[in-house]
Amino acid sequence: VQLVESGGGLAQPGGSLRLSCVASGFTFDMYVMSWTRQAPGKGLEWVAGINSDGSDTDYADSVKGRFTISRDNSKNTLYLQMDSLSAEDTALYYCVKGRYGIASMTDLKEYDLKGQGTQVTVSS
To answer: How crowded is residue 35: how many other Cβ atoms within 10 Å of its Cβ?
Structure first.
């Protein structure tokens, strides 16, 4: 059972990156999935979430209108398209798997599996 993120790197302010997270070892299309991030010296922050069939999404206010979460259940893959990046988006980004029957997409206690993370650095 694991999540493997990729796609991070260095981006310029105003630039874009697309993160991917490949899931294995569980029935991917049964679970809510989210992206979280941790900036240097700060706690883990929920960023965006998507329900099991991809029909419903939610975003933190800090990324709303700039980031787009999506999933391809045929490929067991979660995505995060990040546009209009700023230095405040610099963080280690993790994908996380929700518990079965998750009650709140935004509550980090409702997630039971996290990947190793992919670093996103926004700098000129």
So the answer is: 27
